[in-house]
Amino acid sequence: MSDSAATVNAQVTDSITQVNTKVVGDTPAMAMSNLLMSTSHALGATAHNVTTSQQQWQITMQAATVQGVNSLVSVSSAALGLASETVLEKN
Asked: 76-79 — which CB contacts under 8 Å span 24+ positions?
């Protein structure tokens, strides 16, 4: 090989060095941005799950309240009917 083929232009080596330095320099920023995106996604999913859980809990509590009110109303009707029957039988 001739000497001219064995040597590399200094501009080419400088360009490659700059590209390699840029890639190495960008790595921490890319890693941090990936971490932030993953964390944001996880927090968004958690907020959605909490909202859904609160909605389901509210529906359950409302159903329990309706059942309790129905029980109170039916007990008072039964007690009223029993009291009325007792009064009517004594007369």
From this structure: none
